Sequence to fold (336 residues):
Amino acid sequence: MNRIVGALTVSCLAVGPVAAADFYAGKSVSILVGAGAGGSYDVYARALANHIGKHVPGAPAMVVKIAGGVGGGVATAIQIEHSAPRDGLTIGIVQQTNVTSQITEVEVAGKYDVTRWQWIGNMAPLRNMLGVWHTAPAQTLDAAKTVETIIGATGRNSPTYTVPAALNQLIGTKYKIVLGYNGTADLNLAMERGEIQGRGANWISVVIAAPQYIVEKKFKPLVVDGLTRDPTLPDVPTLLELAQGENEKAAVRLISASGQFARAFFFPPAVPSDRVVLLRKAFDATMLDKDFLAEAQKLKMEIEPTDGASLDKTAREIIASPASAVALAKQLIGSN
Fold:
């Protein structure tokens, strides 16, 4: 049964400052998705877009635009940071690892700053996983220590890369990671064609976009990247469980913390504060909207929302992580 958790308590949406309310009337808001079409980021963005507009004064149209997931969606993060209009008409959702990549990836450092993003809200935390196709030569983590298995990934800043890379460092698996795929739909096709033998990302991307893999037992999850086990995969261990010693555990916690931003939406820096307030209230109200929740249940989407202020606090805590934890996290995910 799907787990729909209405974790936010909000009062009725009050009309914000007149200027902000007037601003949205008759306008369109673009939601830029830093992932491939047809994947779970796309699905969540469209579900939000279908309902949030009615909770914004002026009822603006909400338009989802796919920006692509090559490179882990970093290009979209950079675009939103530096090029998106600061008028409250552009919202972003990028891959969760973009938050921790700011301090773990040299090529990303300085190109954007998640502590300056104005977080609107997160629809659900996410536990990523690594799974293998039914024909893969290594069907267990132990077997993967002796047999090379080809894993597809979108980019170094994506959990499709960081999870198998961390496993190689933590327990000595021999995953060969091939980069450059554009989202989970592209990765699924590559598995079906035999180009790769497994992929990462989140389990919900299988449940939503490829449920036949589960029914036909064609895809097997081996590990989950989360602070706790996925309730829908109770027998699959976490990366944190595989870590040994306090240093490893601290580094893995840092890597896994990105899951708190799995379905998180944000404004670029410098959007007027009254418009941020309006969209945060609209987001919170949408998470309790019965029509939205009905659609989420139909699409098998998990909803466990976090408000924008809490995301802002978590982002700042991640970026302020101790140097020792950051250094080991970089080593585990093979950061340059």
About this structure: The chain has 14 helices and eleven strands. The CA atoms of residues 230 and 271 lie 36 Å apart. The radius of gyration is 19 Å.
